[in-house]
Amino acid sequence: MRGPMRLQAIVKDERRPRDFDPREVVSTWTEKDLLGAKVVDAWVIIFRTRGCYWARASGCSMCGYVNDVAKEVSPEDLLVQLEAVLSRHTGQPMAKVYTSGNFFDDHEVPRESREAILEALGDRCEKVVVETLSHMVRREQLEHALGFVDRLEVAFGLESTNERVLRHSVNKMWGLEEHAKAAALCRDVGASVKTYLLIKPAFLTEREAIEDAVRSGHAADAHSDTISFNPVNVQSRTLVDRLYRRGEYRPPWLWSVVEVLERTRDLTAHVKSHPTAAGKPRGAHNCGACDRKVADAIEEFSLGLRKDFADLDCACKEVWRTYCEAQPFMLTSADPVALIAE
Fold first, then answer.
1. pLDDT tens digit string along 329-338?
2. What is the total count of domains within the chain?
3. pTM for the whole thing?
4. How many other CB atoms are there within 10 angstroms of residue 43's CB atom?
């Protein structure tokens, strides 16, 4: 077994199914986001479903959300979850709905469940954000959804516009062509489009990762209203986790995130990044001393509260530059510091 088929088998082999209560949501919390030009509280809800169909078949190299799914979840189970979270709404004008998979996959979220979720959230929130793979969305589904919410945003995990990166680093089969078609469909019916792009998927050096994210941002700009750059964080039971444990992967530096944001300020789409686990070993991080300051600056930039990062500096910035230069010289995408430490 060679090439992509071998990669798909390795990614799937990392999975360890667990039993979860199908009537219990994964999590819910409130975070800051932009509604128009205004910073507001956004209500995040992660419903527990049977999960992404692609994750069941193989999955993406960095995605561990499949670890939070239940084996089977009925429409009645989803209704119980919905009723449980509605009591926690405290006036947030925006809701972000995640399912560890695809909101417009009828096998994961049946039509009647989508309708109940959208109707309940549409009555409470000005804007609802949902997530799906580009090839899963249909016009009828979008038009039906817009019958319940005033403003709908559909988020797509494009990850990269480089076909080789998608196939061999992310283990994903759908790229810019599929994304562009889905984005056009969303806009045609009146929904906005959020595009997720990765910073440093598996096997890329720090410099390769920066350049890939910047190129992807510019290529996806015409098909996006918002572009969110997601620095890869090490989630358990993933290929990235396997590489990380072997000292063959380091999450991106926060300085890399800063460079990507600086070099995509010219995009028409709103550019943002909300690094998960920023400052922690398994998330985007620098030296430790400057992590909080840099992560806060990235958050401020994403919320439109700062225009650039000119005021940021730390001694580790030179280490980061050397790091970017050392990986290609050593002919490896592994962590040079970890290798030297051994």
1. 777 777 766 6
2. 1
3. 0.94
4. 25
